[in-house]
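Quick one:
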Amino acid sequence: MTKPEARRLIDSLNLPAAQAEAAQRTISRATRSEAIDIIELDSGELLLRRTRSGRSGWQVFEDAIRPDGGKQVVQKAYDADGNLVHDDPKGGTP
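Output:
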């Protein structure tokens, strides 16, 4: 989905304020060329996945956002055949 669609979806979900704010910040970092997927997990976390094409594959940023607004980010890269070639957990917030 696009950034405007993702913003509207977050606004329509009954999320805790801190989680909704963190999700909107993540969406604001997406570029026009990125697709955004939003998945509500049974754990109460919200998974925002931003995907963009690369030179010979694609790159994915996954933000797992907790109800308290804390999050963990993982950067992944896939080659043109769909093989995971990079999996890098980034710093998160407590």
